[in-house]
Amino acid sequence: FSFLLGLGFCYSIINGPTNATVLAGSEARFNCTVSSGWVILIWLSNGNPVLTVISSQGAVETSDRFTSQNYTSGDMFTSELIIHNTQLSDSGKIECSTQKTYESRFAFLSVQVNGSLFIKNSTLTVKENKTVEIVCEALGWAPAPDITWMTNDSFIDKSRYVTQQSQGSNGLYNALSTLTLTPMDTEVLTCLADIEALPNPQNATVTVIFDNSTI
């Protein structure tokens, strides 16, 4: 009976943080909800404590990049960890831990980098029956972007282009996609690069002008 009474004074993590994927430079937010009776709640990033919340005095912030907001609903307390100006190195395990019960919940943060995308020429003139290679270059991405091509709003079959990827010394990825084309008419080609954190793929376009003059 006394053992059961003791259980009444225990508290637990009701809801832990959930996985997040964000673009570098933006905010990442994680929630941790505990039941009443908690004393100290610690947030860790890749095993390193980044913020402590004490029930009697609130959040103890040691870095401008890691701040928090607190919410109380009934006998439940929610701590929201906010990571500002996220960096590639922030990717990894985000953990919410209670000191007394040594209970923890964790989630994973994926920070992605939106690089540059370009096709060197904005227009290209191609003679009849001539084959041309059009190169689309993606620089400084993380992870390596998924590259596709479109012509006049229709996707081009993947067999018509080859994409090569490489990783630089800075950990970022570059991609080079080469589309082989024998134009039959003037058309607008679009190269698209996509990663999960982007709301819409980045794109670069080129207008291929079909020249069937005999001169």
From TrEMBL:
It holds the Pfam family I-set. One of its GO terms (biological process) is cell-cell adhesion. It is found in: Membrane. InterPro entries: BTN3A2-like_Ig-C, Ig-like_dom, Ig-like_dom_sf, Ig-like_fold, Ig_I-set, Ig_sub. Keywords: Immunoglobulin domain, Membrane. The lineage of its organism: Eukaryota, Metazoa, Chordata, Craniata, Vertebrata. One of its GO terms (cellular component) is membrane. This is IGSF5 protein. It comes from the Eukaryota. Residues 11-107, 115-207 form the Ig-like domain.
